[in-house]
């Protein structure tokens, strides 16, 4: 027994196995003959060197000859038609009678095309005619019925193992399923009593390297009748040899890796056969057959029946696996429906996902979750710290592979920094909400110490012996237990599907709300244009009658004041004063409308020069108020309209001096850099402050928080105009203030930094 930390052990170097070109071995297993033919002449241009032993004809006598010259006249025409057919493999197996020195030898011919070459593999046969369809159907019918009626995945695997062993007579047949890391687990076994049990054991991914798994997707059945064979080399005509190695990916007779043969011998197997199990285009597992009693040859028809069992079983894998977790899938759909209802009703979908009850955790069986959206992280349950989460977000955003949903039960293997928080997040599901902006929903599972039972030591898959390094597979397949750390419980398929479904729902909601916002923004822009036009026209047209009222009232006071009663003279003074105030309001409204209509002259501007000009113009007022102006550091340049920025700074600094009742007044102009917003400018004072409930109100036009003449009076449009100027620069404006503690007005300029990672 061993204890190991997942992903940290030093396994032997298997790079040699990974790089071994097993598809171009240059040799075959010698129980058959390989011929490579030129079309349409059917000239033999390559052949295995064992032709004399099986065909009775030396290989050098075969090269350059036509295949038809080896066949009786009664057969030559039909074989030629079959080999030149567009649907070549539908004719397999071909029944060939090879003639030599008066004797006739029967063969099963298995033909295919690959990379412009015509391959014909010949295996000795005892039957002159192909097995009738109804004979094959009789063998397969019972198996089909039993596989179809299997109640669940385990029953399906057990029935398939029994059926393949019944068809073949192998000593042991196991069903082997791959996990996410390509380690395999035995789910079912049918064996003779003398064979060692493998049920429940795990086998490391190194047993079947990557390139071997790729070939299992191409060849659904692979047989090695005798593990002690001596390979038969492929010989070629000179012009064929110049074209490079022969790609034998689809050849039944293709010779296998010497390491794999040694692996089988160490297992005690004399013969081996594997049948691929495919689910949704991916290698799901294998039906692995071994014979401990020596070599064993299976005719083509039996192998075809076994391959059919494998394909028929593959067609049920998704359904039977679905039955395993049917109740959980239904429950996940119900939870997803409730989460969707929450998100559509609330304005903040991230907050809705994370509020109680914690159904976001129940959806995937997680112990913690985090929703990262628009620069804000919302936590539910047990999760890494804020700093650790920010590092995890950056790692996810920087991963070269773009996956909508990334999942692992061993985050440590992918992200070593997770060692610090594996107690809460050894396993991770990360659902990405967008490609460019890096919004995520994360689910976490803690580390769970597990004991895994392997078929032999998985961390010593090879031994290197002698001065010349040579790979040797492990010699023992006995039960070997390992305590694994750094891993969480694995994520189930239905849990990953639930994460995928929730991701799609969130994207749909975000898109729907984006469309609604776009529509509202379009309507708002049109309304603003109409309002600007109305305000400009109204204020312009109101000035003329207002001016008339003011002039006539002033004329009466100037020429007929003596004739008026005191009360009437007071009324006329009020009319004059009100017309002056109304003209001031109309001028402010006209200016506000002009701010919305005018074209900005945007260019790179030194804001320090702008500030110097503003302070020079305000110098008398600053000196009169005996105020101190503080500029801790030079302001960075910005792309803006110089004149409008002078107006904005003038308004803000004037207000800072004006609304201040302290004996020692000061105004500070500065900036700070923020991850989400970029450069943020501010004007801060130690004045009277503003109650939080009025922080929005003060930006409304004509809105004053004090009496008309208090703090020097005014129209109440200054801050409204400044805010509009900032917004015309695609910026934002807000404040922080409390009564008696002063105020700080913040603003940004230019297009805001895209919301993303800090």
What does this protein look like?
It is a single chain. Among the domains are: 15-21 and 133-232 and 246-324, Beta-Lactamase (2-Layer Sandwich); 31-124, Beta-Lactamase (2-Layer Sandwich), CATH 3.30.450.20; 516-597, Helix Hairpins (Orthogonal Bundle), CATH 1.10.287; 602-747, Heat Shock Protein 90 (2-Layer Sandwich). 40% of the residues lie in helices and 23% in strands. It is built from 22 helices and 30 strands. The strands form 7 sheets. It has a 7-stranded antiparallel β-sheet with strand order 2-12-4-3-7-6-5. A 6-stranded antiparallel β-sheet has the order 10-9-8-14-13-11. Strand 5 and strand 6 (103-114) form a beta hairpin. The longest helix has 67 residues, at 493-559. It holds the Pfam family PAS_2. Its EC number is 2.7.13.3. Residues 152-311 form the Phytochrome chromophore attachment site domain.
Brief sketch in words of this structure:
The protein is α+β, with helices and mostly antiparallel strands. The protein is built from 22 helices and 30 strands.
Q: What descriptive keywords fit this protein?
A:
758 residues, alpha+beta, Beta-Lactamase, Helix Hairpins, seven-stranded antiparallel sheet, six-stranded antiparallel sheet, 30 strands, 40% helix, disordered N terminus, disordered C terminus
Q: What fraction, in percent, of the residue positions are helical?
A: 25-40%
Instruction: Supply Rg.
Output: 42 Å
Q: Based on CA inertia axes, which overall geometry fits?
A: elongated
Count of individual helical segments: 22
- The strands making up the biggest β-sheet line up spatially as 2-12-4-3-7-6-5
* CATH C-level label of the domain at 15-21 and 133-232 and 246-324: Alpha Beta
Question: What is the arithmetic mean of pLDDT?
Answer: 81
Secondary-structure-derived class: alpha+beta
């Amino acid at each position: 027994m061993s204890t190991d930390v997942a992903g940290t052990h030093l396994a032997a170097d298997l790079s040699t196995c990974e790089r071994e070109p097993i598809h171009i071995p240059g040799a075959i297993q010698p129980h058959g003959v390989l011929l490579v033919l030129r079309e349409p002449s059917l000239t033999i241009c390559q052949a295995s060197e064992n032709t004399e032993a099986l065909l009775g004809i030396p290989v050098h006598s075969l090269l350059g000859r036509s295949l038809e010259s080896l066949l009786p006249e009664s057969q030559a025409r039909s074989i030629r038609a079959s080999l030149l057919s567009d649907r070549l493999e539908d004719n397999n197996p071909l029944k060939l009678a090879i003639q030599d020195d008066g004797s006739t030898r029967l063969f099963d011919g298995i033909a295919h095309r690959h990379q412009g070459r015509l391959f014909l593999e010949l295996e000795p046969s005892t039957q002159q005619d192909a097995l009738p369809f109804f004979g094959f159907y009789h063998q397969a019918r019972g198996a089909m019925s039993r596989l179809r009626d299997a109640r669940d995945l385990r029953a399906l695997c057990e029935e398939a193992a029994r059926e393949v062993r019944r068809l073949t007579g192998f000593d042991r047949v196991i069903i082997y399923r791959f996990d996410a890391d390509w380690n395999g687990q035995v789910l079912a076994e049918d064996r003779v009593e003398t064979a060692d049990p493998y049920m429940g054991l795990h086998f490391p991914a190194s047993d079947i390297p990557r390139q071997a798994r790729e070939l299992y997707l191409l060849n659904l059945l692979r047989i090695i009748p005798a593990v002690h064979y001596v390979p038969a080399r492929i010989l070629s005509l000179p012009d064929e040899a110049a074209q490079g190695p022969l790609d034998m990916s689809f050849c039944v007779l293709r010779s296998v890796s010497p390491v794999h043969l040694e692996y089988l011998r160490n297992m005690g197997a004399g013969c081996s056969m594997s049948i691929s199990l495919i689910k949704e285009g991916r290698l799901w597992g294998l039906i692995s057959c071994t014979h401990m009693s020596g070599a064993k040859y299976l005719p083509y028809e039996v192998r075809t029946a076994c391959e059919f069992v494998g394909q028929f079983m593959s067609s049920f894998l998704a359904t039977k696996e679905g039955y395993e977790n049917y109740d959980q899938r239904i429950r996940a759909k119900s939870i997803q429906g409730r989460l969707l209802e929450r998100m559509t009703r609330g304005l903040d979908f991230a907050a809705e996902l994370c509020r109680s009850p914690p159904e976001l955790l129940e959806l995937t069986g997680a112990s913690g979750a985090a929703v990262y959206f628009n620069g804000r992280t919302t936590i539910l349950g047990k999760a890494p710290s804020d700093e650790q989460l920010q590092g995890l977000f950056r790692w996810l955003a920087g991963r070269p592979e773009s996956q909508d949903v990334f999942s692992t039960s061993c985050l440590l293997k992918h992200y070593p920094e997770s060692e610090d928080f594996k107690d809460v997040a050894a396993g991770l599901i990360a659902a990405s909400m967008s490609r460019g902006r890096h919004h995520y929903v994360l689910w976490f599972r803690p580390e769970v110490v597990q004991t895994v039972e392997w078929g032999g030591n998985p961390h010593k898959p090879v031994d290197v012996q002698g001065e010349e390094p040579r790979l040797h597979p492990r010699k023992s397949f006995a039960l070997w237990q390992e305590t694994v750390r750094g891993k969480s419980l694995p994520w189930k398929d239905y849990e990953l599907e639930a994460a995928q479904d929730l991701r799609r729902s969130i994207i749909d909601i975000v898109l729907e709300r984006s469309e609604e916002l776009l529509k509202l923004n379009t309507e708002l822009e049109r309304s603003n244009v109409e309002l600007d036009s109305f305000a400009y026209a109204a204020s312009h047209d109101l000035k003329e009658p207002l001016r008339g009222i003011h002039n006539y009232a002033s004329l009466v006071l100037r020429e007929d004041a003596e004739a008026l009663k005191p009360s009437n003279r007071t009324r006329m003074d009020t009319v004059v004063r009100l017309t002056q105030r109304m003209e001031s309001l109309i001028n402010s409204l006209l200016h506000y409308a002009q701010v919305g209509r005018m074209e900005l002259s945007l260019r790179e501007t030194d804001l320090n020069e702008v500030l110097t000009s503003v302070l020079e113009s305000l110098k008398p007022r600053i000196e009169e108020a005996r105020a101190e102006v503080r500029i801790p550091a030079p302001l960075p340049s910005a792309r803006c309209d110089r004149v409008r920025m002078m107006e904005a700074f003038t308004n803000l600094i004037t207000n800072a001096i004006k609304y201040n009742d302290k004996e020692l007044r000061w105004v500070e102009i500065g900036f700070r850099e923020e991850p989400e917003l970029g450069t943020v400018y501010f004007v801060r004072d130690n004045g009277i402050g503003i109650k939080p409930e009025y922080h929005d109100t003060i930006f409304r036009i004509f809105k004053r928080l004090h009496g008309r003449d208090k703090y020097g009076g005014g129209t109440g449009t200054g801050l409204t105009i400044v805010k509009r100027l900032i917004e015309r620069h695609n910026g934002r404006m807000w404040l922080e203030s409390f009564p008696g503690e002063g105020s700080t007005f913040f603003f940004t300029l230019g297009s805001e930094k895209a919301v993303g990672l800090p």
